[in-house]
Design goal:
There is one protein chain. The protein is mostly helical. The chain has two domains: about 1-265, no CATH class; about 270-445, no CATH class. The protein is built from 19 helices and six strands. It has helices at about 1-10, 15-30, 40-50, 55-70, 70-75, 75-80, 85-120, 130-150, 160-175, 210-230, 235-255, 260, 290-300, 345-355, 370-385, 395-400, 400-415, 420-435, 440-445; strands spanning about 205, 265, 270-275, 280, 310-315, 330-335. Strands 3-4-5-6 form a four-stranded mixed β-sheet, covered by helices on one side. A two-stranded antiparallel sheet has the order 1-2. Helix 4 (about 55-70) runs parallel beside helix 8 and helix 15 crosses helix 17 (about 400-415). The chain is elongated, with a radius of gyration of 28 Å. About 45% of the residues are buried.
Length: about 450
Amino acid sequence: MTALRIELRRSTALWAGALFLVSGTGMLWLTSSADLTWRDNATSAVFELRQPLAYVWALVVGLAVLQGMRDGRARVTELFATTPRPDRVRLGTLASAVAGVVSAAAVLLCAGLVVLVESGGGFVSPGFVPLTTTVVLAMASSVLLGLAVGRLLPHPLTVPVALVATFMAATAAGQALEVRSPAAEVSPLALLTPVFDPPASNLVTTSTSVDMGQFVWFTGLGITAFLLLVSRTRRGRLAALLPAGLALALALSVLPTRISDVLVSDSAASRLVCDGPVCVSRVHENHLPVVAAVGREVLAKLAVLPDPPTEVREDTSAMAHLAVPRRDAGVVYVRAQGSSGLPALTPGQLRLELLAGAGVPTCSTPDSVNFDESVVLHLTAGYFNGELAELASERVLWRSGRLRSEAEAAWRALRSRPAHEQLDRVAQARRMMLACEDSARVLDALVGPR
């Protein structure tokens, strides 16, 4: 314990821990200040931390490399080699100090996020534990690897090269995981880093296969790094590569290759809580009174349609941020993700969103823009609302003078029809949208000649 206290005082251990806490907190605030939906779910809060790790990871590795060069810079390597105290004891104490403090800082930061969610009335479940464990293992193994690299390569360029290499690996991994389709494939190599840019949703987490693959990889990497740190001979250093090699092979056999297998629904957070025919996820349970009142009003308005919907549910699917929204003739789905999702809407905006498409969502993916479809959504919402109004999810049309004037012309054309014909046209548009027919044909069915 005396040696450990000395290392804590004389090494960069405490500085490394402070660096992780300060830079991690600062980068989390900078990268996610525009979207704080993660505060509703502890699992999402810890998952959100994976984004700023692209920067924090490189800083921690660089500081560990600098610490690992201590013997080489002081030119005492040969001197320590003549002492009876084994390197595994002396360097093990150093590794325990630095890796232990950084690991404790990682646990403290993750625990702080959980407490922040809890104090704000958010949802807390054990789902954050695997994500926290991954962060801790990743930081500990990276620190050990940095110490080993610094000891083996005590060159002035080692630190900057390690910083740049780590940051480039994190950036490349983040870009490899940026996909636009649920069917997109990702490289398992990108999942060998702790970096991940989570979607704007508080209902998803990483799959069990991702967690297990990362646990195995970072554990094997940490063992190899420690063996490299304490080995004196070339043969010992070659043998030290075996745990990482085995861990890499096992991790690659477990890690998925499709984004739909990487991100899954948080089963605890996405479990539905209902008030009669209206259901929302447990994460958004505090919105249930408002959603229930709006949902019943929407169902009453849509009851004039043939075969009307009878339920209102939040869409809790994991790929909702990438895929065409779910549709069902008997269900009106509430969108929970993105800037126009449930947490960001007022009751009036939510009512219009649920009425749009006569209770049927868009047939386009979330990031796409379809003018004809947007007009259809505005017209159908306006029909039940009594007047044309802006949809929170379709602000591009409403804020464009030319597009808005065209939508208003289509609205006048629809309202010029007899009341029974307007209802027939809206019902036909609903049937066509349920089948995801061409949006131009749907618009023609609404306002075109018969």
